[in-house]
Predict the structure.
Amino acid sequence: MPRSSVRTPFHGPAVPPSGPRLLLFSYFFPPSQAVGALRWQKFARHLAGAGIGLDVITLDPSDLARRDDSRLADLPDGIRVFGVTQPSLPSERLERALLKVKRLLRKPAPAAAAIAQSDRGAGKPAGTAASPGSYSRSEILAGTPGWSLDRAYHARQDLERIRAWAHVAAALGSRILTPGLHQAVISCGPPHPVHEAARIVARAGHLPLVIDLRDPWALVERLPSHIASPAWYRRSARDERRIVRDAALVVLNTDPALRAMRSSHPADADRMVCVMNGCDDDLVPAPPRSSRFLVAYAGSVYLDRDPRPLFRAARQVATELGLTPAEFGLEFMGNVQAYGGRTLGAIAAEEGVGEFVRIHPTRPRADALAFLASASMLLSLPQDSEMAIPSKIFEYAQFNAWVLALAEPTSATAELLRGTAADTVSSRDIGGIANALRGRIEGWRRGERPEALARIDRLSRRYQAGVLLAALQPLIGAPLKLEAACAP
């Protein structure tokens, strides 16, 4: 029996508790370890505080490369989570069959076989590139990558694959939806084709549609090279227009993204609102006492997250201050083994800081929090997506650590951190990065210790949940307990 026909959730009660509920479609949700799963995982507790239950349809856990069940334990009582497996496209099945035939006909050379075995030992599919290249939106639309049938094909596949999941998810959502119980249908992306599932179910159930864009959709500022085709943008722009037209509320997660969307859809601008991610009120681990100044990064190093500006500035500061690895270190945790096809260790050695750099694999969230708590300074690597704020900025705000954000002055990140104690420096300004490092290290030596940015109210998830609930209130028939949901 297909999983889509099963109404039993893999998490939560089989029968929903009484009271109004929302139906959420989100491809990433616990137990997924993806950063995108965290947004509604954390908003769920504020919805519960307001008296609103939540049913979630997400990617089935059997399809996850890595899972963290502690994230499920963090969810409030009464939330139900349903899984939908990712269907394969006919073209994907054909590709796999042809690839299998090709492998049977051609025995790999010894060197290639050794590389494939090494990749499998590292937990990667054989033949997976360490870090794909990428192109900016302006480059793609201007034709900089050059026309490519291969990129156009993969751009279509990228979108169609999630649309296929969305249609199966919509079928399940239609069976879950209960008149009088569910008050609205919400979708969260990327991947953005998931919004189609919510649109189908909301229209059939005559309920308000709310779309939450964690990152821009047709305005996204960078794509991996294998889908870097104008075809991706044309299809996304068409789908975005249809979904936005049907939505009762469009949620963006940065002010620059809100301004850009209002400019693209002026007729729908009054139905748009900005709800940032925000930092949580979770108790974070107590940092161990150490005299070592540690700069830590947790997440992924990919696309435009170039670590070399940091390494160059760190080498300069380590040389000037005569620092040893026992006194100063740069540590990375997560999907951080390589950048641009080269290992991070090799890049660090080339930049002269190899002995200062340590690499840690992806760990469960509790371990990642302990790692961040041990740092004197938390790092946000550069990105050229100026409308997006890395979610780690809000996560970092919970810790008593200085924050070093490599971001351009016009970016959403710089706009958010303006007026705070964070060090925001352009990745092109090696001297500025060095000055920020030097100043904090010298302060550390004098006995200065950082304080968490979370003291600033607008940076908290609690505050942002209040903005979200206030926007949802007119769409929901039942009254919301806003004060209880957003209390400290």
